[in-house]
Amino acid sequence: MFAGVPSDTVIFDLDDTLIVEEAVAFSSLRRAAQLVPGRDPGRVQEVILTAARRIWRAGPDYALCHQLGIASWEALWATFEGSPSILDDVRDWVPVYRLEAWRAALGELGIDDPALATALSEAYVALQRSGHPLVAGAAELVGSLQGHCRLGLITNGPADIQRLKLAGTGLAACFESVVISGEVGIGKPDPDVFSLALSQLGAKAESAVMVGDTWERDVIGALDAGLSAVWISGGRPTPEKRPNVVVVREVAELIGRSL
After folding, report:
1. Which candidate, 127, 77, 132, 131, places its Cα nearest to that of 102?
2. What residues are paired with 134 via a beta bridge?
3. What span, in angstroms and rounded, lies between the C-alpha atoms of 44 and 13?
4. Dihedral through CA 92, CA 95, CA 97, CA 102, nearest 10?
5. 247: pLDDT confidence band, cut at 50, 70 and 90?
6. Exposed/middle/buried for 19, CB within 10 Å: 0-12, 13-18, 19+?
7. Could you give the CA distance from residue 109 to residue 132 in angstroms, rounded to a whole number?
8. Domain for residue 177, yes or no?
């Protein structure tokens, strides 16, 4: 409840709000890096992240991918199936990008081994596809809200992996609307993506709240679209005080609380 107005619609972010995403990605990179003989996996992880980021930013339509919130480590395992035509060039380039990134990383480590680069790429994909755990309290919170208000989800990222991650939560059926940036061609913080979700839910912005962990994309994006917001801070300092924003450290703190 914000300013005395009850929220009859709650829209969630996915990555690092309902599921553990970034930590899993980095763990997968480190585990894959164990395949590199005679090298510290932590060092390999640093090198691949740097190489992937550099090559990703030099690739086709990077500005669009940045707008859609698609990260370089996501593209290391996404296929971009289910993406709109505006991402056709990216989808066609991604298999090349993955091998280039791993080969470049190995090159920086003084290793010239195309077969190893392929093995590392395949290992990372397999590790990422093995699943992303739910954030503590996420299932309980969504379950407690289901049937009492409209539930939606807005997430940035490639369509195929976001759908896969959501399916793995066991919560997909709880959401009446699921909007994925890499599926619709717009992403947070663009107000239009919030308007699209609200339209699908048959809801009004003034009685809706967005719950997410990213200040700029989730909180400011929601406020600009007329929604209220809950920021999952994870202990980070609040960038600025804004009306109609509730700050909690963990999503579990919202269980049993009026939104």
Report:
1. 77
2. 19
3. 30
4. 180
5. very high
6. buried
7. 29
8. yes
How many separate domains does the chain show?
2
Structure tokens at 106: 């190995």
CA distances from 23 to 30, 41, 70, 152 (A): 11, 15, 16, 24
Q: Answer yes or no: are the C-beta atoms of 16 and 169 closer than 8 Å.
A: no
- pLDDT tens sequence across 16-29: 999 999 999 999 99
Domain for residue 1, yes or no?
A: no
DSSP 117-164: HHHHHHHHHHHHHT--PBPTTHHHHHHHHBTTBEEEEEE-S-HHHHHH
The amino acid at 104: A
Are 153 and 12 in contact, with CB atoms under 8 Å apart?
yes
What is the CB-side half-sphere exposure of residue 19 using CA atoms within 13 A? 24
Whole-Å CA distances, 14 to 21, 147, 232: 9, 20, 12
Q: At 243, which CATH number?
A: 3.40.50.1000
pLDDT tens-digit readout, 93-105: 999 999 999 999 9
Task: Indicate if 103 and 158 belong to the same structural domain.
Answer: no
